[in-house]
Amino acid sequence: MSISQISLSRAGSGDTERYEYECPCGEGKIIEEHDNIPGFRDHSVFFRCDKCNEKYKFDLSKGVRGWELVEK
Ligand SMILES: [Zn+2]
Questions:
Q1: What is the superkingdom listed in this entry's lineage (predicted)?
Q2: How big, in percent rounded to 5, are the helix, strand and coil portions of the chain?
Q3: Which pLDDT score, from 0 to 100, does residue 14 have?
Q4: N or C, where is the chain less crowded by C-beta within 10 Å?
């Protein structure tokens, strides 16, 4: 799996990190987002791919930055 795009944007007083990875089937993306806004921290990782969303899930036992894909 390769990182196809990394962007780091600064909006207002907080930072938003957004990473895009190729999904396993290659037709979609995996999106990892970290919103580091004071008073509002949101970390999420999700598929933007229906196929992989059906087939895989995220193992977040090592934390949202250390996610691993596991087959359902
Ligand atoms: Zn896919």
A1: Bacteria
A2: 10, 60, 30
A3: 65
A4: C
CA-CA distance, 10 to 25, in Å (whole number)?
A: 31
Q: Provide the residues around ligand 1 (an ion) whose CB is within 5 A.
A: 23, 25, 27-28, 49, 51-52
Tell me how many domains the chain contains.
1
Report the pLDDT value the prediction gives residue 1, as an integer from 0 to 100: 47
The pLDDT confidence band at residue 63, using thresholds 50, 70 and 90, is confident
Q: Does 71 reside within a domain?
A: no
- Centre of ligand 1 to C-alpha 56, Å, is 9
User: Is 54 a member of any domain?
Assistant: yes
Judge contact between 27 and 51, C-beta under 8 A.
yes
Show the domain range for 42.
3-59
Tell me the per-residue pLDDT of 18-59, one tens digit each, with 9 for 90 and over: 889 999 999 999 999 888 878 877 889 999 999 999 999 999
Tell me if 68 is assigned to some domain. no
Expressed in angstroms and rounded, the spacing between residue 37 Cα and the centre of ligand 1 is: 30
